[in-house]
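Hello Y.,

Per our agreement to keep a running log of every chain we model this quarter, I'm adding this entry. I've kept the format consistent with earlier entries: sequence first, then predicted structure.
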Amino acid sequence: MAKRFPGYDVLAKREGISWNDATRRVITARLNPPPGPRFFTPTEWPCLRAICARILPQPDDRPPVAIADYVDQKLHDGVRDGYRYADLPEQGEAWRRGLAGVDEAARNTDDAAFSELLTERQDRLLRSMQAGELDGPAWCGMPAAAFFAHRLIPDITHAYYAHPTAWSEIGFGGPASPRGYVRMKLNRRDPWEAAEATTPSAEAKAAESNRRVR
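Predicted structure for the entry above:
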């Protein structure tokens, strides 16, 4: 698959005027998360890693974002969302029940842990979780669909898209502090932002749009 922003690397801005020292410290920490597991148990850890790999498969031509390590770090450090859905327990307990529940389902249907299944079987169980079809003692009454929608998906996707590798993939310039963004409307970009690979006619229209708002 062709890259949308070929050659773009957000980390090239590291020493430029886009980022100040505080921003650099935050981004450096995101590049090097403490390796897990620290919150999760040795039994839970392979299941989490397998789920992350199916929710957000990563290409082979670059080092992967350590998604599971970021989820583990959030829970270990006690970082909260600031809210909680009424049908879910607190985030750590929700994850423990969810991982136990999907492993329980895998053993019931395939006589193996979730991490040991073929990817097609893993996807089938994840779709069943999304549809609210998984249930059993390990869930302790927690709705599988609610866990999938409000805990599993947000935690995994937020971990991935907080990483500079993902920023480079989507052409995001990162937290531009102190530089800031100017062109905030749809389909407009600042001159120092990444240009998306596109057809010549579309690129010309984008360039004209940028000229009009300068």
